Amino acid sequence: MDSIALPAGTSSAGALARRSEALAGWRLAGPAVALLSMLILLPTLGVVALSLTDFELGYDGVRFVGLDNYLELLEDRTFLISLANTLTYTLIVTPLSVFLGLGAALLIEAEVRGRALFRAIYFLPVVSLLVAMATVWQYLLHPTIGPVNALLRLVGIDGPNWLGGSDTVLMSLALIGVWQAVGFNMVLFLAGLTAIPRELYAAAEVDRAATAWDRFWLVTWPMLGPTTLFVVTISVINAVKVFETVSTMTQGGPNRASEVLLWTIYQEGFVYLRVGYASAMTVVFLAILMVLMVLQYRALDRRIHYT
Amino acid sequence: MTTRSWNLARVLRLATLSSGALIFLGPYVWMVSTAMKPREEIFSSSLALIPDRWAAVENFSKVFTRVPMLQLLMNGAIVCAVILVVQVLVALPCAYALAKLRFPGARLMISGIMLGLLVPIHATALPIYVALSGAGVLNTYFALAAPFLISVFAIFLFLQFFRAMPDDLINAARLDGMSEFGIVLRVIVPNAWPAITAFSIFSVVAHWNDLFWPQIVVTETAMAPPPLGLIFFRAAEAGDDYGALMAATVVVTMPLLAAFLLAQRRFIEGITLTGLKG
């Protein structure tokens, strides 16, 4: 009897232990699950649901309108301009900030002196309050009293109205975006560079790569591949989310020339309170972002396998 | 390679790095310089960095008298602190449970967290705003902090960290009769400081600098965090009073910049943990 009772006893004790472990697990994870559903999962479903209605805050009555909001988006000039501007902005900021970030990282890595100093200086804009720095840039780029145009006048150039002209505004915003993002990319590249084994360079030198230029293309560039992919996707995602500088300096103007996605959504949803319509825009925005983020996770995965 | 070409390469390198550094520092130099200048000197658009007449006292006193600047800084500090404390308190036990305990639903939870990582605040803002507005709690600290009380990123980060932690440590604590909650508090937290510090820096920088959400839920200056306060200040007072405006930007930028300069390495680690802003 004992020989039967013993395993039965331990297995029920095991079941008890498992149940208490499950209970502890639920208790510890419970608050997170509740908040996750309440603040992220449900609102995400909510925004999709709202995008199918004509809900406006402050008006009674919600009607299900199917895909009408999305159809309206296709003909909404402001939204289309906004998409195009966001694309242009991203296409300027991404290559420039990636290229300059890589350049800065390579130069700093090669230099023995002042590494920490340069790294800190290039990183400053990343930790600075963007709204504050945007205010400073607005002053710097002021057409008449701004130092940038004053400097240009010294060399005889009549500087444009950077943020006030519809031809120059997007480019000015993008350059500020680059200034803000380079330090971040630089740090990611510096981390990527340190992970490259020194022996590879020695081997390359013995092999056939005599100049620094050859060694870059033979060793550094391929070894940095995963990092570069990661930096590019991150830069694209952050560029698509541009909001602070537009909100602080141009508010979409002049003449919608700096209208970007998040600013348009903000206006439509939180200023005009057309929640249903703004939700449809948000869903489009989220779809774009999700595609980009899936690409980014792929890049991140590969980066981890490499190092 | 001759010494001379090495020297030339090095000179070029240092020259490039230094001129880049000048461009990056430029805005800060002008910010501080302009904050010291009186109105007429700013409008003369001279390129002198040192003012003829110092107006720092005048400019900075405007910042503290025309807007409740101390209140703004306080708002920012309170909101960041509330967000950070709740995020960490919620994420730590959850990440521990997911990493070290076996219970039904854990896998589903992890998928939920991975899904949550894909969703930025911009996507959930509308429904949360409608809910907060319906509850009549706009213009409160609660509204400012609410969407950020959960950080899936924190859970994700701690989860990675805890998985690498040896089980022996936890088993030993269990044999000592510690409860699971006690283990989190007395075994996990002391060992997780590097991850907690890095996440804290990430979280504070993201929320101190955030404009998007505060601009949605706050319309009163008294409740505004610094970025929004700065925008109110400009709209109400300092339209083209650039001296006062620059003084205000100095004040709101300083806290984080000072912290960064004191603990550079940690800041860089914390912020580059993720490529995502907030």
From TrEMBL, chain A:
Cellular localization per UniProt? Cell membrane
UniProt record, GO biological process: transmembrane transport
Q: Which InterPro entries match?
A: ABC_transporter_permease, MetI-like, MetI-like_sf
Q: How does it sit in the membrane?
A: Multi-pass membrane protein
Is this entry keyworded Cytoplasm? no
Ranges annotated as spanning the membrane: 28-52, 87-108, 120-140, 169-196, 216-240, 271-295
Q: What is its main location?
A: membrane
The ABC transmembrane type-1 domain extends over: 83-296
Keyword terms of this UniProt record: Cell membrane, Membrane, Transmembrane, Transmembrane helix, Transport
Q: Name one GO cellular component term.
A: plasma membrane
**Entry's family note:** Belongs to the binding-protein-dependent transport system permease family.
Protein's name in the database: ABC transporter permease subunit
The species is: Microvirga makkahensis
Automatic annotation (TrEMBL), chain B:
Q: Which Gene3D superfamilies match?
A: MetI-like (1.10.3720.10)
Q: Where can this protein be found? A: Cell membrane
Q: Where does the signal sequence lie?
A: none
Print the keywords alphabetically.
Cell membrane, Membrane, Transmembrane, Transmembrane helix, Transport
Instruction: Tell me what topology the record assigns in the membrane.
Output: Multi-pass membrane protein
Q: Which GO terms describe its cellular component?
A: plasma membrane
Read off the SUPFAM superfamilies from this record: MetI-like
Q: Name one GO biological process term.
A: transmembrane transport
Give the coiled coil ranges.
none
Which Pfam families does the entry mention?
BPD_transp_1
Every copy of the ABC transmembrane type-1 domain together lies at 73-263
Its primary localisation, in coarse terms, equals membrane
Q: Where are the transmembrane segments?
A: 12-30, 72-96, 108-129, 141-162, 183-208, 242-263
Instruction: Identify its protein family.
Output: Belongs to the binding-protein-dependent transport system permease family.
Q: What is this protein called?
A: ABC transporter permease subunit
